[in-house]
Amino acid sequence: MAAKNNCKNARREKQRQNMSDSEEMCEDCNKEESPDDKGLVCSLCDNWFQIKCQRVSVTDYDFLIKSDDRIQWFAKAAKVRPKKYIKC
């Protein structure tokens, strides 16, 4: 379980840093991120999106960044079918 938490914590830390140490591109607008951009990584497709492109408010963004790993965020344009994650 520790490895799972480490992976999720690493993802959250990457989001907190707005991924400024990488050359990520927003999947919606295809613009490279800048240090001032606020973005989230989709829990389904694992892609990065600017909050303005996904129409996520700064209040919601701050909540998601500060939340624990039980809170997941899904992009409107996630390129993975949710059925993969639903156990029937």
Automatic annotation (TrEMBL):
Residues 1-24 are annotated as: Disordered. SUPFAM superfamilies: FYVE/PHD zinc finger. InterPro entries: Znf_FYVE_PHD (IPR011011), Znf_RING/FYVE/PHD (IPR013083). It comes from the Eukaryota. This is PHD-type domain-containing protein. It comes from Dreissena polymorpha (Zebra mussel).
